Amino acid sequence: MGNTSKNTADAQKAYKKAKKRRRQLRKAEQLKAGNKNNTGQQSSSSSSSSNAKPKWHRVGKEDGAKKAVDRPLEKGYGVDQINELLEKRSKAKEIKDYAVSDEITKTLVKLQIVYDDDKRAWHTREWKYGV
Q1: Mean pLDDT of 18-42
Q2: CA–CA separation, 7 vs 2, rounded Å?
Q3: What is the reported pLDDT for 44?
Q4: What is the rounded distance in angstroms from the CA atom of residue 80 to the CA atom of residue 120?
Q5: Which CA distances in Å does 15 have to 8, 12, 24, 43?
Q6: Cα angle value 104/108/109 (rounded, 5°)
Q7: C-alpha span between 24 and 9 (Å, rounded)
Q8: N or C, fewer C-beta in 10 Å, the chain?
């Protein structure tokens, strides 16, 4: 009985190690792909401010967001308003004002907007009622 749990523990360790290695390989591939795409843009546009964050932007299926749906936004909201909400959320998180950040997140969830903080990109999904 003790031998079985040792085998299970060994298998879990091996799985975690393999998973970590796959993650590292994916990250390296993404960095390579990002460097290839941004080599000309980075040197010309952001040479003076190296730590400036890119602006929030909407992406679609053609940009790699597999579940993105190009649908109109809810009345009263446009692309600029969503970008402003996401910018306010980011700033609130930076100063650790999580109450404001959470309220903005709730608004975005109600609008069924999915965002990626690392890429500073967002997209809409198919409407699901009852959210």
Answers
A1: 74
A2: 9
A3: 43
A4: 14
A5: 10, 5, 14, 40
A6: 115
A7: 23
A8: N
Which residues on neighbouring strands pair with residue 58, listed in sequence order? 122
Hey, what are 28's tokens? 């390296």
| DSSP for 28-92, written as a single string | HHHHHHHHHHHHHHHHHHSSS-TTPPPPPEE--GGGT-TT----PPPTT--HHHHHHHHHHHHHH
The pLDDT value given to residue 131: 52
Q: Which two tokens stand for residue 51?
A: 């730590």
CA neighbor of 104 nearest in space, from 81, 126, 120, 121:
81
Residue type (1 letter), 47:
S
